[in-house]
Amino acid sequence: MTEWITPQRAGEVVQALADVPAPSQVAAWTRGPLVGRFLRDWGAPQGAWDPNLNGTGNGVLRIGSGARRPVWVLAHWDTISFLVAGRDGEAYALVPYHHHVMPQEESQPGAAVRYDPVAGAYGVVARGTITGGERPTFRSGDATPRGAGDRIVYDTPTRWLDDDRLEGQLDNAAGCAGALLATAFLARIPDVEAVTCFVDEEEGPVALGSTAFARGSPRLLHHLPHPDVAIVVDHHTCEAEETATLGRGASIREYASHTRGAVTPPWLFASLRHLAQEHADHLALREDARAQANRSDCVVMMQVTPNVILCGPPVVGRHYRSGPYRCSAFDVAHLARSLVMMAMRFQPATP
Which residue of 111, 175, 223, 259 lies most exposed, with the fewest beta carbons within 10 A? Predict the structure, then answer.
C-alpha cells in the first residue's frame, strides 16, 4: 500500500482535480471524465464507475459484488461558486452558492463557466476578478454578457510551494484525491464491499439551515442500500500556522461544527484510535484540535446511521477568506491509506 499510495501520486491527483472547474451541479460533467481516466490508467474495474448515478449528479465507484455495501466513503466534488444576478456598473453582481466569507478588501482571480448545448459540454468562457464583501462582483475584460446559467468560480491554478505543500482551490479536491486513491487500491483486495460517492451540491448557503446545503447526498439514499458505516471526507479547516498543522498526517474529529453536524459514537472513535495506534508504522492518522471538521454530507448520513466517521486532510484556509487553500501531499497520502484501513476494518464479520 505504501509503495502505491505515495505523497507524490497524491499531490498529482490533487492538482489534476483542483484545476478542473467544478461548481455545484457541474462536477459530474467536468470531474467525472477525469476520475474515469485515472481509474483506467490505474487498471481499476471500469464497470464499477458511474460518473452520474441515475442523473443525481453524484459519481459512484463500487467495490465488491454484493447488493449492499456496508461501508460508504463520501467526498463532495463540487466547489464553491457564484450565480450571476445581473449588471452592477462595470461588473456583475454575484449570488454566493456557498457560505461566503471573502472580505470586502479581498479580490481573487475568477472564471465564468458555461454550458454549450451544441458541444454538450461545460467550458470556461471568460476570466476576470472576483471581489468579496457583502455584495461580491465579477469583472472581466470580455464583452460577452453574463447571466442566468453562468457559474463564477475561483480561478487559482494549483501550484507546489515546495516538495510537499500545494496551494490552490483545494476544497474538496484534496479529500476527493484521498478517496479516489483509497478506492482504487481497495479494488485490488478480494472480498471488500464498499462504495465511494463523489457528491455534488455539498456547498450551499448554510445560514438557511442544514437543508440548504448537502443537497446531493440525499439523492443517493434513494438509489443505494444504506451503509452500516459512513466515512465523510472533507477538508478539516486549520486556522493555526500551517507549519504546526500540515505535513503530520490525516485528521479525524469526533464531531462537526460544535455538534451541529454528526457526532461519532464512542465505540467507533475508540476503534479509530486503536486503528491508528496499531498501524502507526505506516499510517499517520491523528486528532488535532486545530483542525476543525465543518458540517458536510455528515448531516445527511447521520439520518440513516449513527456510525459516521469524520476524516479529512488538514487544510489551511476557508472559502477564500484569506486567499487560496494550502494542503500537504503527505497528509492526503495518509488520508488515502487511512481510508483503506477503515474500509477493511469495518467489513462485516464472515461466518
Answer: 259
Residues sharing a CB contact under 8 Å with residue 211, sequence separation 6 or more, in sequence order: none
Q: pTM of the prediction?
A: 0.95
Pairing of strands 91-96, 236-238: unpaired
* Annotated domain spans of the chain: 7-79+159-345, 84-154
- Domain at 7-79+159-345, CATH from 3.40.630.10, 3.30.1300.10, 1.10.275.10, 3.20.20.70: 3.40.630.10
| Integer angstrom CA distances of residue 253 from 15, 103, 231, 259 | 25, 28, 11, 11
Give phi and psi for 263, each to the nearest 5. -125, 125
Torsional class of 116: left (φ above 0), alpha (ψ -120 to 50), beta (otherwise): beta
Beta-bridge mates of residue 112: 126, 152
The one-letter code for the residue type at 183 is T
253 vs 46: which has the higher pLDDT: 253
What per-residue confidence (pLDDT) applies to 205? 74
Written as one letter, the residue type at 184 is A
Quote the pLDDT of residue 65: 87
Which distant-in-sequence residues (6+ apart) come within 8 Å of 49 by Cβ? 35, 36, 39, 59, 60, 61
pLDDT at residue 245 in the model: 82
